[in-house]
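Lab notes, practical 5.
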Amino acid sequence: MRIPYTSPLPQPVIFPPHASDISGAVDALINFLTSKRTLENKKTVILSGAGISVASGLADYRGSNGTYTLNKTYRPIYYGEFCGSHAARRRYWARSFLGWPTLHRSQPNPAHHAVARLGEMGLLSTVITQNVDSFHPQAHPTLRTLELHGYLRRTVCITCRTEYDREKFQTDLKQLNPNWASFLEEMIANGAFTTEDPAERRKRGLKTNPDGDVDVPGVDYSTFRYPPCPKCLAGGVATDQGKEVRTDDDGAWEPPADGMASKAAGILKPAVIMFGESIPNDVKVAVENAVDDAQQILILGSSLATYSAWRLVKRAKDQGKPIAIVNLGGARGEEQFFTDIPTDNDGTAGLRCSLPLEKTLPALVERLEQARSSTGDRLTRGFVPAPWA
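Output from the prediction step:
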Protein backbone atom coordinates (compact mmCIF):
# COMPACT_ATOMS: atom_id res chain seq x y z
CA MET A 1 0.00 0.00 0.00
CA ARG A 2 1.33 3.43 -0.93
CA ILE A 3 1.80 6.31 1.48
CA PRO A 4 -1.41 8.40 1.58
CA TYR A 5 -1.89 11.45 -0.60
CA THR A 6 -0.81 14.35 1.62
CA SER A 7 -1.54 17.49 -0.42
CA PRO A 8 -4.41 19.69 0.80
CA LEU A 9 -7.78 18.78 -0.68
CA PRO A 10 -10.16 21.39 -2.13
CA GLN A 11 -13.50 21.93 -0.48
CA PRO A 12 -16.27 19.96 -2.24
CA VAL A 13 -18.74 21.42 -4.69
CA ILE A 14 -22.15 20.27 -3.42
CA PHE A 15 -24.68 18.99 -5.94
CA PRO A 16 -27.52 18.86 -6.45
CA PRO A 17 -27.55 22.23 -4.65
CA HIS A 18 -30.26 21.15 -2.22
CA ALA A 19 -27.97 18.33 -0.95
CA SER A 20 -26.38 20.90 1.34
CA ASP A 21 -28.63 19.80 4.22
CA ILE A 22 -29.72 16.37 5.40
CA SER A 23 -33.24 16.55 3.99
CA GLY A 24 -31.99 17.54 0.55
CA ALA A 25 -29.16 15.02 0.66
CA VAL A 26 -31.64 12.26 1.51
CA ASP A 27 -33.75 13.26 -1.50
CA ALA A 28 -30.69 12.98 -3.74
CA LEU A 29 -29.54 9.70 -2.20
CA ILE A 30 -32.97 8.15 -2.69
CA ASN A 31 -32.84 9.13 -6.34
CA PHE A 32 -29.36 7.66 -6.64
CA LEU A 33 -30.17 4.37 -4.89
CA THR A 34 -33.64 3.78 -6.38
CA SER A 35 -33.11 4.78 -9.99
CA LYS A 36 -34.41 2.35 -12.59
CA ARG A 37 -30.95 0.92 -13.29
CA THR A 38 -30.35 0.06 -9.65
CA LEU A 39 -33.81 -1.18 -8.77
CA GLU A 40 -33.65 -3.60 -11.70
CA ASN A 41 -30.12 -4.84 -10.87
CA LYS A 42 -29.68 -3.98 -7.16
CA LYS A 43 -26.00 -3.33 -7.74
CA THR A 44 -24.76 -0.39 -5.71
CA VAL A 45 -21.34 -0.99 -4.19
CA ILE A 46 -20.25 1.04 -1.16
CA LEU A 47 -16.70 2.17 -0.52
CA SER A 48 -16.29 3.34 3.08
CA GLY A 49 -13.49 5.11 4.91
CA ALA A 50 -12.60 6.32 8.40
CA GLY A 51 -15.34 8.97 8.41
CA ILE A 52 -18.02 6.35 8.94
CA SER A 53 -16.42 5.26 12.23
CA VAL A 54 -16.12 8.70 13.83
CA ALA A 55 -19.38 8.28 15.76
CA SER A 56 -18.01 5.03 17.22
CA GLY A 57 -15.39 7.05 19.08
CA LEU A 58 -12.63 6.51 16.54
CA ALA A 59 -11.27 9.74 15.09
CA ASP A 60 -10.77 9.94 11.33
CA TYR A 61 -7.45 11.77 11.85
CA ARG A 62 -7.93 14.10 8.88
CA GLY A 63 -9.42 17.56 8.72
CA SER A 64 -11.68 18.77 5.95
CA ASN A 65 -8.67 19.48 3.75
CA GLY A 66 -7.38 15.92 4.04
CA THR A 67 -4.37 16.47 6.29
CA TYR A 68 -3.63 14.78 9.61
CA THR A 69 -5.04 16.76 12.55
CA LEU A 70 -4.53 14.69 15.72
CA ASN A 71 -0.77 14.33 15.23
CA LYS A 72 0.63 16.35 12.35
CA THR A 73 4.05 14.67 12.70
CA TYR A 74 2.57 11.19 12.43
CA ARG A 75 4.52 8.80 10.22
CA PRO A 76 3.06 5.31 9.79
CA ILE A 77 5.33 2.30 10.16
CA TYR A 78 6.31 0.60 6.91
CA TYR A 79 6.11 -3.13 6.31
CA GLY A 80 9.83 -3.50 5.62
CA GLU A 81 10.68 -1.58 8.78
CA PHE A 82 8.36 -3.76 10.86
CA CYS A 83 9.72 -7.02 9.45
CA GLY A 84 13.37 -6.02 9.62
CA SER A 85 13.66 -4.25 12.96
CA HIS A 86 13.17 -5.76 16.42
CA ALA A 87 13.22 -2.23 17.86
CA ALA A 88 10.51 -1.07 15.44
CA ARG A 89 8.31 -4.01 16.43
CA ARG A 90 8.79 -3.27 20.11
CA ARG A 91 7.72 0.32 19.51
CA TYR A 92 4.75 -0.72 17.36
CA TRP A 93 3.40 -3.35 19.76
CA ALA A 94 3.88 -1.13 22.83
CA ARG A 95 1.84 1.64 21.23
CA SER A 96 -0.74 -0.83 19.94
CA PHE A 97 -0.95 -2.35 23.43
CA LEU A 98 -1.94 1.04 24.83
CA GLY A 99 -4.44 1.80 22.06
CA TRP A 100 -6.14 -1.59 21.81
CA PRO A 101 -8.61 -1.23 24.75
CA THR A 102 -10.23 1.85 23.16
CA LEU A 103 -10.57 0.16 19.80
CA HIS A 104 -11.73 -3.15 21.26
CA ARG A 105 -14.57 -1.65 23.30
CA SER A 106 -15.83 0.49 20.40
CA GLN A 107 -18.93 -0.65 18.53
CA PRO A 108 -20.61 -0.01 15.15
CA ASN A 109 -22.59 3.22 15.14
CA PRO A 110 -25.91 4.23 13.52
CA ALA A 111 -24.22 4.75 10.15
CA HIS A 112 -23.02 1.12 10.04
CA HIS A 113 -26.45 -0.13 11.09
CA ALA A 114 -28.06 2.04 8.40
CA VAL A 115 -25.81 0.36 5.81
CA ALA A 116 -27.04 -2.97 7.17
CA ARG A 117 -30.65 -1.90 6.64
CA LEU A 118 -29.92 -0.71 3.08
CA GLY A 119 -28.52 -4.16 2.41
CA GLU A 120 -31.63 -5.81 3.83
CA MET A 121 -33.71 -3.65 1.49
CA GLY A 122 -31.83 -5.15 -1.43
CA LEU A 123 -30.20 -1.89 -2.48
CA LEU A 124 -26.55 -2.94 -2.04
CA SER A 125 -24.38 -5.65 -3.51
CA THR A 126 -21.12 -5.30 -1.56
CA VAL A 127 -19.37 -3.08 0.96
CA ILE A 128 -15.69 -2.40 0.34
CA THR A 129 -14.11 -0.79 3.38
CA GLN A 130 -10.72 0.80 3.92
CA ASN A 131 -11.28 0.55 7.66
CA VAL A 132 -9.57 -2.07 9.81
CA ASP A 133 -12.00 -1.82 12.77
CA SER A 134 -14.31 -4.65 11.55
CA PHE A 135 -17.44 -2.62 12.30
CA HIS A 136 -18.98 -3.43 8.94
CA PRO A 137 -18.93 -7.24 9.29
CA GLN A 138 -20.17 -6.83 12.87
CA ALA A 139 -23.08 -4.63 11.83
CA HIS A 140 -24.14 -6.59 8.75
CA PRO A 141 -22.72 -10.15 8.73
CA THR A 142 -25.01 -11.22 5.88
CA LEU A 143 -24.08 -8.31 3.61
CA ARG A 144 -20.81 -9.04 1.85
CA THR A 145 -17.90 -6.97 3.19
CA LEU A 146 -14.46 -6.81 1.60
CA GLU A 147 -11.83 -5.42 3.99
CA LEU A 148 -9.42 -3.78 1.56
CA HIS A 149 -6.71 -3.04 4.11
CA GLY A 150 -7.17 -6.05 6.39
CA TYR A 151 -8.32 -5.97 10.01
CA LEU A 152 -6.96 -5.37 13.50
CA ARG A 153 -9.02 -8.12 15.13
CA ARG A 154 -6.32 -10.68 14.27
CA THR A 155 -2.55 -10.96 14.20
CA VAL A 156 -0.76 -12.95 11.49
CA CYS A 157 2.63 -14.65 11.36
CA ILE A 158 4.82 -13.35 8.54
CA THR A 159 6.46 -16.79 8.27
CA CYS A 160 3.61 -19.33 8.28
CA ARG A 161 0.64 -16.90 7.79
CA THR A 162 -1.28 -18.38 10.74
CA GLU A 163 -3.72 -15.92 12.29
CA TYR A 164 -4.45 -15.41 15.99
CA ASP A 165 -7.05 -13.50 17.97
CA ARG A 166 -5.87 -9.97 18.83
CA GLU A 167 -7.60 -9.88 22.22
CA LYS A 168 -5.80 -13.07 23.30
CA PHE A 169 -2.58 -11.53 22.00
CA GLN A 170 -3.29 -8.54 24.28
CA THR A 171 -3.43 -10.93 27.24
CA ASP A 172 -0.04 -12.35 26.27
CA LEU A 173 1.38 -8.83 26.06
CA LYS A 174 0.08 -8.06 29.55
CA GLN A 175 1.76 -11.15 30.97
CA LEU A 176 5.08 -10.35 29.30
CA ASN A 177 4.98 -6.65 30.27
CA PRO A 178 3.61 -6.27 33.82
CA ASN A 179 4.94 -2.71 34.22
CA TRP A 180 3.33 -1.62 30.95
CA ALA A 181 0.12 -3.34 32.02
CA SER A 182 0.12 -1.32 35.25
CA PHE A 183 0.75 1.88 33.29
CA LEU A 184 -2.17 1.06 30.99
CA GLU A 185 -4.48 0.48 33.94
CA GLU A 186 -3.36 3.80 35.41
CA MET A 187 -4.09 5.61 32.14
CA ILE A 188 -7.53 4.01 31.93
CA ALA A 189 -8.27 4.90 35.56
CA ASN A 190 -7.42 8.59 35.10
CA GLY A 191 -9.54 8.83 31.98
CA ALA A 192 -6.72 9.34 29.49
CA PHE A 193 -8.53 7.27 26.88
CA THR A 194 -11.99 8.75 27.35
CA THR A 195 -11.35 11.70 25.04
CA GLU A 196 -10.29 11.96 21.41
CA ASP A 197 -9.46 15.66 21.84
CA PRO A 198 -5.78 16.00 20.91
CA ALA A 199 -5.13 18.86 23.37
CA GLU A 200 -6.61 16.87 26.26
CA ARG A 201 -4.60 13.79 25.39
CA ARG A 202 -1.38 15.81 25.15
CA LYS A 203 -2.05 17.16 28.65
CA ARG A 204 -2.11 13.56 29.82
CA GLY A 205 1.10 12.71 28.00
CA LEU A 206 -0.42 10.87 25.03
CA LYS A 207 -0.41 11.28 21.27
CA THR A 208 -3.13 9.54 19.29
CA ASN A 209 -2.41 8.12 15.85
CA PRO A 210 -4.50 6.05 13.41
CA ASP A 211 -5.60 2.47 13.99
CA GLY A 212 -5.30 2.20 17.76
CA ASP A 213 -1.73 3.55 17.98
CA VAL A 214 -1.00 5.59 21.12
CA ASP A 215 2.38 7.27 21.56
CA VAL A 216 3.75 8.28 24.97
CA PRO A 217 6.56 10.78 24.33
CA GLY A 218 9.79 10.07 26.19
CA VAL A 219 9.02 6.43 26.97
CA ASP A 220 11.70 3.79 26.39
CA TYR A 221 10.03 1.25 24.10
CA SER A 222 13.05 -1.09 24.29
CA THR A 223 11.63 -2.57 27.49
CA PHE A 224 8.54 -3.87 25.71
CA ARG A 225 8.35 -7.58 24.83
CA TYR A 226 6.09 -9.54 22.50
CA PRO A 227 5.45 -13.28 21.96
CA PRO A 228 6.33 -15.36 18.89
CA CYS A 229 3.99 -17.34 16.67
CA PRO A 230 3.07 -20.50 18.63
CA LYS A 231 3.05 -22.63 15.46
CA CYS A 232 6.52 -21.55 14.39
CA LEU A 233 7.81 -21.93 17.95
CA ALA A 234 6.65 -25.55 17.88
CA GLY A 235 8.59 -26.19 14.65
CA GLY A 236 7.27 -26.77 11.15
CA VAL A 237 7.41 -24.00 8.57
CA ALA A 238 10.21 -22.02 10.20
CA THR A 239 12.40 -25.08 10.65
CA ASP A 240 11.72 -26.23 7.09
CA GLN A 241 12.95 -22.85 5.83
CA GLY A 242 16.16 -23.05 7.85
CA LYS A 243 14.99 -20.35 10.22
CA GLU A 244 14.76 -20.31 13.97
CA VAL A 245 12.50 -18.95 16.68
CA ARG A 246 14.25 -17.87 19.87
CA THR A 247 12.63 -16.73 23.13
CA ASP A 248 13.82 -15.47 26.49
CA ASP A 249 13.06 -17.27 29.75
CA ASP A 250 9.58 -15.76 29.87
CA GLY A 251 8.68 -16.74 26.31
CA ALA A 252 9.20 -13.38 24.62
CA TRP A 253 10.52 -13.33 21.04
CA GLU A 254 14.25 -12.71 20.66
CA PRO A 255 16.44 -12.11 17.58
CA PRO A 256 18.56 -14.96 16.16
CA ALA A 257 21.73 -15.69 18.12
CA ASP A 258 23.96 -14.59 15.24
CA GLY A 259 21.94 -11.41 14.71
CA MET A 260 21.02 -12.31 11.12
CA ALA A 261 17.54 -10.88 10.51
CA SER A 262 17.09 -13.18 7.52
CA LYS A 263 17.04 -16.17 9.88
CA ALA A 264 14.34 -14.69 12.13
CA ALA A 265 10.96 -16.41 12.13
CA GLY A 266 7.71 -16.49 14.04
CA ILE A 267 7.17 -12.73 13.93
CA LEU A 268 3.55 -11.70 14.44
CA LYS A 269 2.16 -8.57 12.79
CA PRO A 270 -1.32 -7.06 12.79
CA ALA A 271 -3.46 -8.57 10.04
CA VAL A 272 -3.62 -5.20 8.31
CA ILE A 273 -1.96 -4.06 5.11
CA MET A 274 0.89 -1.81 6.18
CA PHE A 275 2.36 0.91 4.01
CA GLY A 276 4.83 -0.71 1.65
CA GLU A 277 3.01 -4.05 1.88
CA SER A 278 1.13 -5.46 -1.09
CA ILE A 279 -2.60 -6.04 -0.91
CA PRO A 280 -3.16 -9.79 -1.40
CA ASN A 281 -4.07 -10.62 -4.96
CA ASP A 282 -7.31 -12.36 -3.99
CA VAL A 283 -8.48 -9.19 -2.20
CA LYS A 284 -7.43 -7.01 -5.13
CA VAL A 285 -9.35 -9.19 -7.58
CA ALA A 286 -12.42 -9.35 -5.31
CA VAL A 287 -12.74 -5.57 -4.92
CA GLU A 288 -12.17 -4.98 -8.62
CA ASN A 289 -14.85 -7.54 -9.48
CA ALA A 290 -17.24 -5.90 -7.01
CA VAL A 291 -16.79 -2.57 -8.78
CA ASP A 292 -17.04 -4.15 -12.23
CA ASP A 293 -20.27 -5.97 -11.33
CA ALA A 294 -21.93 -2.88 -9.84
CA GLN A 295 -24.07 -0.34 -11.63
CA GLN A 296 -22.71 2.52 -9.48
CA ILE A 297 -20.53 3.33 -6.47
CA LEU A 298 -21.32 5.21 -3.25
CA ILE A 299 -18.37 6.54 -1.23
CA LEU A 300 -19.02 7.02 2.48
CA GLY A 301 -16.61 8.84 4.77
CA SER A 302 -13.46 8.61 2.65
CA SER A 303 -11.14 11.34 1.40
CA LEU A 304 -9.72 8.74 -1.03
CA ALA A 305 -6.23 9.69 0.16
CA THR A 306 -4.91 6.15 -0.28
CA TYR A 307 -4.31 5.09 -3.87
CA SER A 308 -5.84 1.64 -3.29
CA ALA A 309 -9.22 3.31 -2.66
CA TRP A 310 -8.91 6.12 -5.20
CA ARG A 311 -8.14 3.72 -8.03
CA LEU A 312 -11.42 1.85 -7.44
CA VAL A 313 -13.42 5.04 -7.89
CA LYS A 314 -11.34 5.87 -10.97
CA ARG A 315 -12.13 2.37 -12.26
CA ALA A 316 -15.86 3.00 -11.84
CA LYS A 317 -15.55 6.38 -13.57
CA ASP A 318 -13.66 4.84 -16.51
CA GLN A 319 -16.56 2.41 -16.91
CA GLY A 320 -19.05 5.28 -17.04
CA LYS A 321 -20.71 4.44 -13.74
CA PRO A 322 -22.47 7.06 -11.58
CA ILE A 323 -20.57 8.11 -8.46
CA ALA A 324 -21.86 9.54 -5.20
CA ILE A 325 -19.73 10.85 -2.34
CA VAL A 326 -20.89 11.59 1.20
CA ASN A 327 -17.84 12.84 3.08
CA LEU A 328 -17.10 15.75 5.37
CA GLY A 329 -14.51 17.83 3.53
CA GLY A 330 -12.69 17.16 0.29
CA ALA A 331 -11.87 13.95 -1.53
CA ARG A 332 -8.80 13.32 -3.65
CA GLY A 333 -9.36 14.13 -7.32
CA GLU A 334 -13.11 14.30 -6.90
CA GLU A 335 -13.55 16.97 -9.58
CA GLN A 336 -12.71 14.44 -12.30
CA PHE A 337 -15.37 12.03 -11.06
CA PHE A 338 -18.23 14.42 -11.69
CA THR A 339 -17.65 15.55 -15.25
CA ASP A 340 -20.59 15.40 -17.66
CA ILE A 341 -23.24 15.53 -14.90
CA PRO A 342 -26.47 17.00 -16.37
CA THR A 343 -27.45 20.40 -15.03
CA ASP A 344 -30.90 19.07 -14.13
CA ASN A 345 -29.43 16.12 -12.21
CA ASP A 346 -31.55 15.24 -9.16
CA GLY A 347 -29.02 12.80 -7.75
CA THR A 348 -29.75 9.99 -10.19
CA ALA A 349 -26.56 10.70 -12.18
CA GLY A 350 -24.43 11.25 -9.08
CA LEU A 351 -24.22 13.48 -6.04
CA ARG A 352 -21.82 15.14 -3.63
CA CYS A 353 -22.62 16.20 -0.09
CA SER A 354 -20.58 16.99 3.02
CA LEU A 355 -22.64 15.84 6.00
CA PRO A 356 -22.20 13.56 9.04
CA LEU A 357 -22.96 9.96 8.11
CA GLU A 358 -24.35 9.01 11.52
CA LYS A 359 -27.20 11.47 10.89
CA THR A 360 -27.59 11.30 7.12
CA LEU A 361 -27.74 7.52 6.66
CA PRO A 362 -30.33 6.84 9.40
CA ALA A 363 -32.48 9.65 7.93
CA LEU A 364 -32.16 7.98 4.53
CA VAL A 365 -33.23 4.62 5.92
CA GLU A 366 -36.20 6.18 7.71
CA ARG A 367 -37.44 7.77 4.50
CA LEU A 368 -37.00 4.57 2.52
CA GLU A 369 -38.86 2.57 5.15
CA GLN A 370 -41.73 5.04 4.99
CA ALA A 371 -41.81 4.55 1.23
CA ARG A 372 -41.83 0.77 1.67
CA SER A 373 -44.75 0.87 4.09
CA SER A 374 -46.77 3.14 1.83
CA THR A 375 -46.21 1.02 -1.31
CA GLY A 376 -46.75 -2.45 0.07
CA ASP A 377 -43.09 -3.24 0.81
CA ARG A 378 -42.09 -2.24 -2.73
CA LEU A 379 -39.26 0.26 -2.95
CA THR A 380 -39.99 3.13 -5.26
CA ARG A 381 -38.89 6.69 -5.51
CA GLY A 382 -41.83 7.33 -3.24
CA PHE A 383 -41.46 10.92 -2.19
CA VAL A 384 -42.74 14.24 -3.44
CA PRO A 385 -40.01 16.17 -5.29
CA ALA A 386 -38.88 19.31 -3.53
CA PRO A 387 -39.97 22.63 -5.07
CA TRP A 388 -36.51 23.29 -6.47
CA ALA A 389 -36.29 19.95 -8.28
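Observations recorded by the TA: Residues 62-71, 380-389 have pLDDT under 50 and may be disordered. The two ends are 42 Å apart (CA to CA).
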